[in-house]
Write a structure and sequence with these properties.
By secondary structure, this protein is of the alpha+beta class. It has 2 domains: 62 residues; 82 residues, Immunoglobulin-like. The protein contains 2 helices and 8 strands. The strands form 2 sheets. Strands 3, 4, 6, 7 and 8 form a 5-stranded antiparallel sheet that branches. Strands 1-2-5 form a 3-stranded antiparallel sheet, with no helix packed on it. Strand 1 and strand 2 form a beta hairpin. Helix 1 packs antiparallel against helix 2.
Length: 178
């Protein structure tokens, strides 16, 4: 440890304070407003007691860790705080009916308890390549509006949660009402 530097280890700090106390006691030009030798000795005793308490605590902590390790027979406990969430399920039953408004279709499905919301898409072709529209909804139903009367539509739905997307339902079909 270089001259003038504060010690990093508690035991080195105690030694450094002891040497400073001895040096101060022998200093003839010690300023009158500086701490007295008795005050320095009291601070040194308090510091030594604190360091001793810290060392005792570290020893007790080491014993507790060893006891915990023995209690688990060398195996770490299974983490229970990060349980894997159940997977999003495929929507199996997708029902379609004429909507209340003209040129609309009402779609509903069985709610997935693991989904936070749903993505719904509708198409005008059976290959599901010509998407006409889509929506994200929080309920397990949706009314598609502004459709072309007499046009056959394919609709599919999937559950969503945060950044996860569940599997798409099989498409359901219906002709838009008048």
């Amino acid at each position: 440890m270089g001259k003038g530097r504060i010690a990093a280890k508690p035991s080195d700090l105690t030694s450094q304070l002891s040497r400073a106390s001895i040096a101060i006691a022998s200093e003839p030009n010690w300023p009158p407003n500086a701490p007295s030798q008795a005050e320095i000795d009291t601070a040194l005793a308090a510091m030594t007691g604190s360091i001793s308490s810290i060392n005792d605590f570290e020893a007790q902590l080491g014993q507790a860790r060893a006891a915990l390790h023995e209690a688990y027979f060398g195996l770490r406990p299974k983490k229970t705080t990060h349980e894997k969430r159940p997977a999003l399920q495929q929507i199996i039953i997708l029902r379609m009916a004429d909507g209340i408004a003209p040129k609309s279709l009402f779609v509903d499905w069985e709610a997935d308890p693991n989904a936070a919301a749903y993505q719904i898409e509708w198409f005008t072709d059976s290959d599901l390549t010509h998407r006409i529209g889509s929506a994200a909804v929080s309920e397990s139903q949706y009314t598609i509006t502004n459709l072309t009367t007499g046009q056959l539509y394919w609709v599919r739905v999937c559950g969503i949660r945060a950044s996860e997307t569940g599997p798409w339902s099989d498409p359901a079909t219906r002709v838009a009402n008048i």
